[in-house]
């Protein structure tokens, strides 16, 4: 008899959507998330194109459903260690890292942050803000329960064994330093991979001056910079506190290196312009693009609208960023081969989407192949765009390749559909 | 300016965006003036003149209606309808010079805890400046 | 151009001029007698004087001999014509062809009610008539003979004799064909002309006829057909009528502006408005006679607002005193917020007010402002959607709290 | 008054107890009308807390429960479940948010306490008006109607049909397969060969749980999720109409091509050997790529984005199939000279760019250009264009293949009317939420998949079909009843005057008009309980359960004490 349970790896929009559909169908779902919170990348966005909807408002109800649905068992700070067996009878080992804060007891009051003596970079905020060794990544994060970072917690990393500032501050006996990582054994009938994407590390592309010139930001940094629940509470300021007056947004960063177009950068870059125009009407904004990729029935209209708002769109052949006596400049060859430069006090890099951090190791553990771009490959040549080569293992969202939100959600729903139809 | 005056404010907040925004203001421990009594409605489009006028007549010094930003409505179109109803009510108060500033419509999203605090505090200041509404102090009404 | 300005080149230019030696009333009555003969209508809805009395009532006539007592332009509005039409067709459309002869404000109320699904206009020919206004009900009842004399003079001296009701005196919508509803940007000019015709078929023009002749003005093909069936050629020029209409219109616009300025002075602000409504005895007559107040149970009568004794005590404690009847202000503002966008300023509310509060004047003033802000002209065209049943995604941002609060 | 209301204030550890004077709160409210008990507890959402509450409800025989704690968004469900366990209808309960919206945002303890008291009073006076709402259960039909027998429809049918679920596949032409049937080949990474399609068609034809209705169209649809009725009209040999009952519907009516005649500069229909993409697909499928004069072309121009400006959107797939054409031409007619004229290359999928690079290596010319003018010139087609940088140029070719925009198929608007579905400004079906719910419509249980929603490639269409299937498989489980929303609107017949304002504001088509009674009627199976209708009704003739006027008025009054 087939095992009807499903393992979903990754709790971004794709993973959540699939879990909810499977859960509603009455299927037992094990939802595995590497991080301490659910929602993936989308919850980092303030608004999404083309309707400028508030991402949090869109996602929060789904996150709540995930936390409340009794068919969905959520494993945070967890990763897949091993997968054996075949469709209908997979045996999966999960490594669940210690959170040191009890999900059951903690009520998310945040009393424990303040007393913690350690302050470190908040990677969720792209290092744009500090956090304590015990913290939630951002206000409104779900579940609203902090995590202790064992590398940096003085007690756990042994630098100050007696420290228990957080424990003393907690009235709910939620802190448990002795919590240990666990290995869990699960049995499932099908597996869905929804591990999402990462962004190309632009440090490896020196021509863009990232971390050299002072106000070069990645797209993801900028998303947080303008998020109302982000490090500056949505105030748009440069690292020196100044408001930018001229902004360059560079598309296709790393496209030629990666050998594919990420499909979404043109639109989200245009979204940035829309936002900048609104916040700083007098600002000069220039989008540097190659071929504009704006498919979708409403996208061109949005692009036209931004164009009419007086944002410059310049086609470039090659481009680089330099900083001369404190001034950053974009030096480029335009579509007709003429050289030119643009002085900018803020530069945003729309970098290629790449496979999520643990893709390669995960592929190995599960034993399925990646395509030559490093994403999980489906049997699309057999017109089966969510099924991997292994029976019973499916992939959805950006784990399969760069995609926008509706694309990821549709693919997740599709995977859920296929799973439901093979499990019935 | 009446310093000692503590206005009575009623706020109709939609469940999906604005009420969540208010919660976020709370969990972010933002200071909010203690004058606004929040009434949760499922969608801002549930609110109409029947509710608002009664609030005024029964003693509100100000009424706030808050919902999802246009386009974000959990029910797609609700806030567009309430915006029209509101515009009408506002125009009536303007024409009769009945202190239209006591009535306010704000779009507050689930991530805008800070905005919620700002909107409410600003509203509270403005109304404090206006003083108590004659609607409920004037015995002839 | 605003919804209701005159656009003379949009006005019908051709119609039938009929001589009226035997008096306007008889001439019109005869025409409708003929229309019954010719079977171009099966029945006619028209005000008729109740024999042996000074009262007028709406009558659905099938027997033409009874038309003798009919009067398309009685000195008073006892029952708003739209209400008569509503009671006729609330439950479904007319099964025979009816002609309804109503004043412009009554027609407009009828069109609003049709948008509110309270009237079925199918098979009904709406026929409007230039209206010099009506006498205040109270004056008329006090001395009918005198009022009738005055009214005769009102008819002769268009817009000059101001013994008509105040809302009539300042009425700028006395001649329907000249009123043009809002143009929707989407519709092409061609469509516009069709879509923007006032929702009447035939108009009876009196202006410019100085009691000797009347103008029968077809507003649409149906109207032309009616005239054909009456063997009337509709190719006489309407210049005289048009010029006079525009002339009176300009005069009225001016009067209206000044009047409303003064009125605003009188009612603006908490204090004054309260004073205005202080006499109100909460009889809700204004609501009952209002054609637009179509609810079968008014929300403010529904008891939804009756509170516990202790609440009243605590309210009186707050105010120092609690005045009864309760919530009169709530009632008027509430009613206003429900119907003012469709208010046609017909004035029956004021006629009906036992305390002679200038309800109609106040509502008419607010109607002007609110309808303008929605660019809406009630009762002109039945295709124009009701403002509160419609919206644009990008509008009214001025009423929203700005993105930056401080 | 025979209410026995229990009021329980959660200390939430220090979060509430330190910032609000709970004892004063209890003292204030215990005297309120109907309150039987008023107590505090350390942490009500903990297991101890939940058990405590359950016991209290039973012990004190409470008729209503008020809990003053955190936001309803946190624990409303938690405490409703407690009520259920303790045998109290969960809607006779009110959660008062004194943490987020008092304790945490008001630093002055006095003030915070004052507000908390207000809120709790509001809750007490509101809860006595609560009605014990009951979940309804409706039977549902698992069967599905799929409109359109193209690749999307077929895929959905295969995904859904099973021993306990019948699928009706309605196709207006004589045969299944749709547009794809016309193609000569597919992109290697999008279904290497057409056999895949043929297989799927065969599978669907051999599936006894799929009833295929070709030469048929949907005439009428009534009902709601789980209980739709549809009338299907068959055009073939007058076999008349057929009534079917289904639980859900998938619209997969696909697309057609923009007619290049509307853009005369391309000379389509006037100049010989100017084809549109589909004509070329069929030509190459036939294996005979020939000019009108019977000779094979020596040079071909492919022009992208035909009609893009007119329609205002990019159709996404044209760049790639044009490259496919170019490579096909090279394979079939070695030595042929092929030029691609594009405005912006749209290569969004991960494998697209490689496919394009290979084509470039094979010597296919790619020219970015606009302002085309095609003229006949001594038996050839002279393609005049403005190249990037503004320079005018021209090239003479034997054949030109236009890539026109994808537009909605003919019967889209007619079908939209029958199903009462909105279209967007481009004329395609409109998704209920472009971001979050890309294949659903405002009508629950009606989904749209494939190009009926907008331009798409084959894998994307298939994904959407499987997605629609997923939604149906999880919401329509054979033998399982469906539970509609409980907090819905209801018409108070005696107050309704039949103005139908509510119909005009309901986004979900949940309200209909009863001609006989002359009043509006809410279909509780469709209503989502937003209350737009309630707000729009001047007579107050609509009640939104759990948010009635009296309930809200009580809150207002307490707020203004």
The mean pLDDT of chain D is 94
- Please give the CATH class of the largest domain in chain A: Alpha Beta
Provide the CATH architecture of the largest domain in chain D: 3-Layer(bba) Sandwich
Radius of gyration of chain A: 23 Å
Give the DSSP E fraction of chain A (strand runs of 2 or more residues).
Answer: 25-35%
Write a structural description:
The complex is a heterotetramer of chains A (424), B (141), C (406) and D (561). Helix content of chain A is 22%, strand content 27%. Chain A is α/β, with parallel strands linked by helices. Chain A has two domains: 6-97 and 181-196 and 356-423, 3-Layer(bba) Sandwich (FAD/NAD(P)-binding domain), CATH 3.50.50.60; 201-352, FAD/NAD(P)-binding domain, CATH 3.50.50.60. In chain A, the strands form seven sheets. In chain A, strands 15-21-16-17-18-19-20 form a seven-stranded mixed beta sheet. Chain A has a five-stranded parallel beta sheet with strand order 5-2-1-13-23, with helices on one face. In chain A, a hairpin with a 4-residue loop joins strand 3 and strand 4. The relative contact order of chain A is 0.16. The mean pLDDT of chain A is 93. With 141 residues, chain B is of the alpha/beta class. Chain B has one domain: Rossmann fold (3-Layer(aba) Sandwich), CATH 3.40.50. In chain B, helix 1 crosses helix 4. Chain B starts with 8 loop residues before the first strand and ends with a helix. Helices cover 42% and strands 16% of the residues of chain B. In chain B, strand 1 (9-14), helix 1 and strand 2 form a beta-alpha-beta unit. The longest helix of chain B has 18 residues, at 78-95. Chain C is built from 15 helices and eight strands. In chain C, helix 3 links the parallel strand 4 and strand 5 (124-129). In chain C, helix 2 (81-89) packs parallel to helix 3 (104-115). Chain C is globular. Chain D is α/β, with parallel strands linked by helices. Chain D has four domains: 5-133, 3-Layer(aba) Sandwich (Rossmann fold), CATH 3.40.50; 144-254 and 409-475, FAD/NAD(P)-binding domain (3-Layer(bba) Sandwich), CATH 3.50.50.60; 257-407, FAD/NAD(P)-binding domain, CATH 3.50.50.60; 489-545, Alpha-Beta Plaits. In chain D, helix 3 packs across helix 4. At the A-D interface, helix 1, helix 2, helix 7 and helix 9 of A face helix 7, helix 8, helix 12 and helix 14 of D.
Explain briefly what this protein structure is.
The complex is a heterotetramer of chains A (424), B (141), C (406) and D (561). Chain A is globular.
Give keywords:
heterotetramer; A: 424 residues; alpha/beta; FAD/NAD(P)-binding domain; seven-stranded mixed beta sheet; five-stranded parallel beta sheet; 9 helices; 22% helix; 27% strand; D: 561 residues; Rossmann fold; 4 domains; elongated
